[in-house]
Design a protein that fits this description.
By secondary structure, this protein is an alpha/beta fold. It is built from ten helices and eleven strands. The chain folds into two domains: 87 residues, Leucine Dehydrogenase, chain A, domain 1 (Rossmann fold), CATH 3.40.50.10860; 124 residues, Rossmann fold, CATH 3.40.50.720. It has a six-stranded parallel beta sheet. The protein has a three-stranded parallel beta sheet with strand order 3-2-4, with helices on both faces. A two-stranded antiparallel sheet has the order 9-10. Helix 6 crosses helix 7. Bound molecules: guanine (GUN).
Length: 286
């Protein structure tokens, strides 16, 4: 039996339609959600992500603005921009596109964002809130994975989830979101010894290592749910995930494709967090 393909593109379309209706009702109440995106330098992948984020906002009625800085911009210039966006009542969410150039201290920049506008949930406060089960915003990629699981009625509680990858953007928050929903969670890395010993015990396997096709069929439990967060460009220009889709789909119960799996859900969750930030700003004013 071949796995059920979890279509992230289709689900993202459904959720964005719901969010669009939500934004329309907010606009009728005089609230127009607003997102500011800061990009430093001219990394082509980051430029595409930022363009996609701005378009996704405009598609559902969210106001957005992009603040571009040269790659040699000073940290102070960026901090100044963040301070003024923190005070701007039209802006409810602030996102600094990563990676930043090496001369800029990521932690210093991210922690300058007002915690109520931190729609990436990268600020230490929001990381702590997530770990203690008190989060307002969840980081977009792991939050998108959770929505994919929930909307496909995939049970989490009591199941063994294995996360391969320990990044601050995906692996670590992913593990805590699954833990919060009652999964038994194991965190591995691409360097874990005898990795397949762990992965082949996973009911839910989430992979975010950046190593093309590193998870092969022999590493996956029959009927497991396999979520591939990786997106890698091969020498022939094609995209592939961290999971060997063709072989693993014959073993897994559910699998996400690349492209068209987790990717489209990430921006969807950014939209959702921006709307949430706007609603919370309005209720804080009342
Ligand atoms: N770079 C890669 N992924 C992300 C993300 O989710 N947010 C930001 N701000 N930068 C990124």
């Amino acid at each position: 039996m071949s796995a059920h393909i979890v279509d992230g593109k289709e689900l993202a379309g459904i959720v964005r339609q719901e969010l669009k209706s939500h934004v329309e009702s907010l606009i009728q109440r005089g609230i127009k959600p607003g997102l500011a995106v800061i990009i430093v330098g001219d990394d082509p992948a980051s430029s595409i992500y930022v363009r996609n984020k701005a378009k996704a906002c405009s598609d559902i009625g969210i106001y957005s603005e992009v603040h571009r800085f040269q790659k040699d911009a000073s940290q102070d210039e960026i901090l100044q921009c963040i301070h003024s966006l923190n005070e701007n009542a039209h802006i409810h969410g602030i996102l600094v596109q990563l990676p930043l150039p090496k001369h800029i201290d990521n932690n210093r920049v991210i922690s300058a964002i007002a915690i109520t506008k931190d729609v990436d949930a990268f600020h230490f406060y929001n990381v702590g809130a997530l770990v203690t089960g008190n989060s307002v915003f969840s980081p977009c990629t792991p939050a998108g994975v959770m929505v994919m699981l929930q909307r496909n009625n995939i049970a989490i509680e009591g199941r063994h989830a294995v996360v391969v990858g320990r990044s601050n953007i995906v692996g670590k928050p992913m593990a805590f979101l699954l833990l919060e929903q009652g999964a038994t969670v194991t965190i591995c890395t691409s360097k874990t010894r005898n990795l397949s010993q762990f992965t082949s015990n996973a009911d839910i396997l989430v992979v975010a290592t950046g190593k093309p096709r590193m998870i092969t069929a022999d590493m996956v439990k029959p009927d497991a749910v396999v979520i591939d967060v990786g997106i890698n460009r091969l020498p022939d220009g094609k995209l592939c995930g961290d999971v060997d889709f063709e072989s693993v789909k014959a073993v897994a119960g559910y699998i996400t494709p690349v492209p068209g799996g987790v990717g489209p859900m990430t921006i969807t969750m950014l939209l959702s967090n921006t709307i949430l930030a706007a609603e919370r700003a309005e209720s804080a004013e009342r």
